[in-house]
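Write out the 3D structure for:
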Amino acid sequence: MRNRITTGAALGALLLLTGCGAADMTKQASPFANAQSARTVTLSVQSWVGAQANVAVAQYLLERELGYRVDTVQVDEVPAWDALSQGRVDAILEDWGHPDQEQRYVQDKKTIVNGGDLGVTGHIGWYVPTYFAEQHPDVTDWKNLNKYAEQLRTPESGSKGQLLDGSPSYVTNDKALVNNLNLDYKVVFAGSEAAQITQIKQFAKEKKPFLTYWYAPQWLFEKVPMTEVKLPAYKEGCDADPAKVACAYPHTPLQKYLNSGFARDGGDAAAFLKKFRWTTEDQNEVSLMIADQKLSPEEAAKKWVDSHESTWRSWLP
């Protein structure tokens, strides 16, 4: 939303979470990260709305229930691990699987620790609109995609069918899949999750066929029903070589990661973030409020918190 999933998906920001100084962490550090004896927490905000929903609710509760000052910073997936290792951010609340970074920072350097399951399982795949799948049921098998390449052409894809992706910053297997499965398609980047959503909505409004990289959980499925195209079955290790990938993306339990020093010395905030765990339905509820209903992240968090006390109360130390 995202490495292997190997991202995950994932995807550009619909809205930046507001905080005490949202910034691009690839260029600067939060003034609050690693502040000694200060009740401050710095959370990395990934650029897709599901991750923004996690941070919105965590920030709201850290500030109002535990009395912390929370800083949020936006950073791409891989640089976020570097920032976390260096203590420039304290936590990442939604990671879709970055084995190289896990090995380097969790296993070898031990500067990052796993903060537990988020409670949400992520999956990336290729999707067509359900209205097109109902008209052409065989399009949901990758072996038949070339049959529909002409119908899926766009000015951006030229003579080939278009496979719509989000942000070029997301690590995906799509170019390798197109090449290794001998598909007559071109990967076209929308530029961000927001731009990709806008394009999908426009296609749906006009009832045009499209093929897109997409992922779950994601609130857009409620607005534009989509059906997954079956790629060759995922098997452990089939995506080990990025250049030779010819299999589907896995289903990945999404993880939280904490800076090891923060995990050890972060007090109530660290304890809270380790306990933070909700469902796909919870995340989609908040995401929908932010992305579709245009509530601010704080407003969406407040609305969810007000109606789900039985869920979040158990996260408090």
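Residues 49-64 form the longest helix (16 residues).
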